[in-house]
Structure formats: C-alpha cells, structure tokens
Amino acid sequence: MDIKKYKESILYLIFGGLTFLVNMITYVLFTRVVKADVLVSNCIAWIAAVLFAYITNKFFVFKSKETDFKYILKEFRAFVGCRLFSGIVELGIIFVMATLMGINDLFVKIVTNIVVIVLNFIFSKLIIFKKEIQV
C-alpha cells in the first residue's frame, strides 16, 4: 500500500477524530456540567470544533501555504460557510432525533458527527483548500 497516496485522507481522519473529541468534550461539558440546552450546547461545541478544524486542516491536512491576510480571510470564510451548512444539518438531526423523538442526545451527537465528518471532508477537499478558492 502506498501510504503517500492516502496521506491526506489519513491525516484528515486523525485530525477529524481530534475535532470530534473537541466537539464532544465541549458538548458534554455544556450539557452535563453547565446544564445548558442541547441545541445551545451543540452550537458552542460547533464553534470550538470549527476553529480547531480550520487550523489543523489548513496547516496539517491540506497544507495550505497561503499566508496573505486577504487570502486567509477568504479561505476562512469559505471554510466557515461550508461548515455552517454541515452544522445546520447536524443541528436539524439533533433537533428531530433528540428533542422531538427523545433519543439519547449523546448517541445522536455521535451518529451525526459521522455524517458531518464525511460532508466536511468533501467540502474541504473540493472547495476550500484548493489552489484557487471558488467563492
């Protein structure tokens, strides 16, 4: 197996796993310790995860070398825009399954993260961390 061929995907899975941990730890902290609402906690966890993911994806996964401030703002805007879409999908699934259907919120959060990780990889690979940002 040629590891170089799959390096980007492997790194995405590693940092995606770490982003998942940031997301889950923040979510559990706010739902269980702070006793915040499930949807509010999810939004806070989403913000923490997006910031962590942008930094790790930019520098370690997709190795975006651009350092021009205007370019970084454009790249970050595209990143947040795509993550906003997957975040809304996640919020919708949590609302329906945990709030309306009464399914355990931690179970739902874990399941939705699988969907979100796949969506985010596609967005990052095809839209955000290309040589030319399509914004």
TrEMBL record:
Keyword Phosphoprotein: no
Keyword check for Transcription: no
Alphabetical list of InterPro entries matching this protein: GtrA_CellWall_Glycosyl (IPR051401), GtrA_DPMS_TM (IPR007267)
Membrane topology: Multi-pass membrane protein
Compartments where found: Membrane
Domain (GtrA/DPMS transmembrane): residue spans on this chain: 12-129
UniProt keyword annotations, A-Z: Membrane, Transmembrane, Transmembrane helix
Spans through the membrane: 12-30, 36-55, 76-100, 106-128
PANTHER family recorded: CELL WALL TEICHOIC ACID GLYCOSYLATION PROTEIN GTCA, PROPHAGE BACTOPRENOL-LINKED GLUCOSE TRANSLOCASE HOMOLOG
Membership in a protein family: Belongs to the GtrA family.
Protein name per the record: GtrA family protein
Native organism: Romboutsia faecis
Organism lineage string: Bacteria, Bacillati, Bacillota, Clostridia, Peptostreptococcales
